[in-house]
Amino acid sequence: MLLHLPGDHTARTVADAMITAMNTLPEQLLRSTTWDQGAEMSRHQEITMATGMPIYFCDPHSPWQRGSNENTNGLLREYFPKSTDLSFHGPGILENVAAELNRRPRKRHAYRTPAEVLAELVSNPVN
Fold first, then answer.
1. What confidence tens digit (pLDDT) does each residue in 75-88 have?
2. Neighbour-count burial of 80, counting CB atoms closer than 10 A to its CB (0-12 exposed, 13-18 middle, 19+ buried)
């Protein structure tokens, strides 16, 4: 899931976008999220209150604590090289990129796609 942040990535904008997006997910997918130390997450408690999803923060300079996020960032660089002005890309473009990436098989998932893994998780909820 990629979030479109038109105009800025302030804490208010990020919180509003995350709350809207996270509230569309099934409950079993709201276990937690892990973030880096960016100021854009200064409203993390508000996000948790609105979604019920705890947010954890990585230790500074420890990208391995968000391994799948770092991997996804690398894949996104194929579409949006560093220094790309993302304001030119609307929500439709981001949805298309997310859909493409979610249909891409991953070694991590025994060469299943993230979409297949997600469908399995949603259809077999864990108590």
1. 999 999 998 888 78
2. middle
